[in-house]
Specification:
This protein is of the alpha/beta class. It is built from 24 helices and 8 strands. Strand 5, helix 10 and strand 6 form a beta-alpha-beta unit.
Length: 515
């Protein structure tokens, strides 16, 4: 969503990097470009004015004029101000002292409240809670049925005593849902309320009556991030008519300019608490202002990437796979398929690559990536026999033709996959062997062996003192090597001029951690 804004800001900062010192003219030109970028992103004018004024004031201060790299300091200032506009710190849900915690969703029709209710319920269930969805939208056709379907997919209970489609009292449904949650030991109640295509008094009164009936711990305003400036107008109307504690942004994966995210919090003073980034129930998470600012400035979002990996990858399985990767030999096509499937669970490859720093400059290449290519690779591997997956070397021409027919691809596609797998296996073997780099595990093993083999005999120094030390080092070193002591790590030799103390037994000397 923030691609246009990110591209503009990145180009602004790239022009600053060549300057060793920033003049007032440079600062004015930079802030002017930032202002244009924000306005093009559909950010509200009051927000743009406040943002640019703060950046300009800080850019002319001592933190930039005395900095070794003024351009980086300006980027830091813009990053800090973006974080501040987006809310500063991550705002967490407030839970009731005595369950259930009541969360009420409000917003216009079409903002995605019902789907978001299921996403929030699933997210809370994964946090260890027992949420219950409440169908209090009794006006919109089939809203109750939609919530029941979403609840089933999210594996959470749904309270729907009324059929909806204009039948039933939403205020009574909301009131009775709290007692039902207590009876069934649900610690969180999420109430899905009715919306309208536009703001009207009837909708505001109904939402206010539900709020008064259940006294929610959190009222969340659900806003479509793609509606631009209208998001600010709607948010102000709901703030005056109903009041809310936090904002939830939906459809952040859209191609709109994203100004709503930068405007709503500043205009209403209420934090953005959650963000929905896709159509799937799992495309939902808490909103982190610092991570969003990093994405906008093309500095990546490594923390979110790590969190997604931790959710997807099993720790024991990952450790086992790491052992295979380092050995190189035992890594098979079955392991490759397993790794690929685990990465796919983390989400679309485009999204994962987009979280890496600097990937904004490769956006065209990233957008050309098709996740269906991974499905084709999986089909090729699944068309192989267990023996072929374990040892791809046996895959000859006739086997490749059979695999290609079974997976619906060309023979060349099968050949390319096998060739690339062998190349990856070779690379892992080199890494496991230290790639010939001194100090790396296995890095000098072959050289050491050949050197030992070609060695004809030990040269004895003509200096009697050095010859005696050499003999002492050799005899003590042999004992150390056999016992695995410190001298074994020194190659069994003592530095010239160093003598062993009388009665010293090197076999009894151990490094820290050795038994």
């Amino acid at each position: 969503m923030f691609e246009t804004l990110s591209d503009r800001l990145t180009s602004v900062f790239s022009s600053l990097r060549s300057k060793g010192r920033l003049s007032d003219a440079d600062i004015d030109a930079t802030t002017r470009e930032i202002r244009i970028a924000l306005l093009e992103a559909d950010v509200a004018l009051p927000v743009v004015k406040a943002f640019v004024a703060q950046v300009k004031e800080r850019a002319r201060g001592s933190e930039v004029s005395q900095a070794l790299n003024p351009a980086q300091q300006v980027v830091k200032i813009v990053n800090d101000e973006l974080i501040e506009i987006l809310g500063g710190e991550t705002r967490r849900l407030r839970f009731a002292k005595t369950p259930p915690t009541v969360i009420m969703l409000a917003g216009l029709q079409g903002a995605g409240k019902t789907t978001l209710a299921g996403k929030l319920a699933r997210w809370l269930r994964e946090q260890g809670h027992a949420p219950m969805l409440v169908a209090a939208d009794l006006q919109r056709p089939n809203a109750v049925q939609q919530l029941q379907v979403v609840g089933e997919r999210a594996q959470v209970a749904v309270y729907a005593p009324e059929p909806g489609n204009g039948v039933g009292d939403p205020i009574e449904v909301a009131r009775s849902s709290v007692d039902e949650a207590r009876r069934l030991n649900h610690d969180i109640v999420i109430i899905d309320t009715a919306g309208r295509l536009g703001i009207d008094q009837e909708m505001m009164k109904q939402a206010a009556d539900i709020r008064d009936a259940v006294s929610p711990d959190e009222v969340l305003f659900v806003v479509d991030a793609m509606i631009g400036q209208d998001a600010v107008v709607t948010a102000q109307a709901f703030m005056e008519g109903v009041g809310f504690d936090g904002v939830v942004l939906t459809k952040l994966d859209g191609d709109a300019r994203g100004g709503a995210a930068l405007s709503v919090r500043h205009i209403t003073g209420k934090p953005i608490m959650f963000a929905s980034t896709g159509e799937k129930l799992e495309d939902f998470d808490a909103f982190h202002p610092d991570r969003m600012a990093s994405r906008i400035l093309d500095m990546g979002d490594i923390l979110t990437l790590i969190e997604q990996a931790q959710k997807t990858f099993d720790e024991e399985q990952a450790a086992k796979m790491a052992g295979k990767l380092t050995s190189g030999e035992n890594f098979t096509l079955d392991d490759f398929l397993e790794q690929m499937q685990m990465v796919q669970k983390m989400g679309p490859i485009k999204n994962l690559l987009g979280m890496m720093p600097g990937m904004g400059q490769m956006r065209d290449q990233i957008n050309s990536i098709d996740d269906r290519d991974l499905d084709r690779i999986a089909a090729i591997i699944r068309s192989m026999t267990p023996a072929e997956r374990q040892d791809p070397k046996i895959i000859n021409g006739s086997r490749r033709a059979r695999i290609a027919a079974g997976s619906g691809v060309s023979v060349s596609a099968v050949s390319n996959l096998v060739t690339r797998f062998f190349e990856a296996q070779k690379m892992m073997k080199r890494m496991a062997g230290g790639m010939g780099i001194p100090g790396m595990p296995g890095g000098r093993s072959k050289a050491a062996k050949s050197q030992k083999k070609n060695k004809k005999g030990r040269r004895v120094s003509g200096d009697p003192r050095k010859a005696a030390l050499g003999k002492a080092g050799s005899s003590s070193g042999d004992g150390a090597k056999k016992s695995g002591g410190v001298l074994g790590n020194l190659g069994g030799k003592l530095p010239p001029g160093v003598e062993l103390p009388p009665g010293f037994d090197p076999s009894k000397l151990r490094l820290p951690g050795q038994k």
